[in-house]
Amino acid sequence: MTALTPVERHERRRQQRRRDLIRWGIRALVVLLVFLFGVALGQALHDNPRPGRTITHDQTLHIPTGNPASTVTP
């Protein structure tokens, strides 16, 4: 077994930190992509309601103007 020099130890630590940073970056990217996919799926389901639902139709009724109490014509 050989002992590492201080320079070699420092280089190995740098490489290990770099690998750890890359791993955490990939994990964060995967979590972000899953979150964005969930948001997109939720929006798609919200924008496209199920077919066959009841459709409501609104219509304005027009009431004739005038004096409705007066039935006598001159």
Q: Which labels suit this protein?
A:
0% strand, 74 residues, mainly alpha, single chain
What do you see in this structure?
This protein is an all-alpha fold. The protein has a domain at 1-49. It has one helix at 6-47.
Could you give a short description of this structure?
With 74 residues, this protein is mostly helical. It has a domain of 49 residues. It contains one helix and no strands.
SSE order and pairing:
Elements lengths: L5 H42 L27
Please mark out the parts with pLDDT under 50 across 5 or more consecutive residues, or reply none.
none
Oligomer: single chain
Portion of residues within helices: 55-70%
Largest sheet: none
User: For the residues shown, what is the average pLDDT?
Assistant: 85
Q: Based on DSSP secondary structure assignment, what is the total number of beta strands?
A: 0
Q: Which structural class do you get from the secondary structure elements?
A: mainly alpha
Shape: rod-shaped
Radius of gyration, whole Å: 37 Å
What are the secondary-structure elements, in order, as H or E? H
Beta-strand share of residues: under 5%
Tally of DSSP helical segments = 1
N- and C-termini, Cα separation: 125 Å
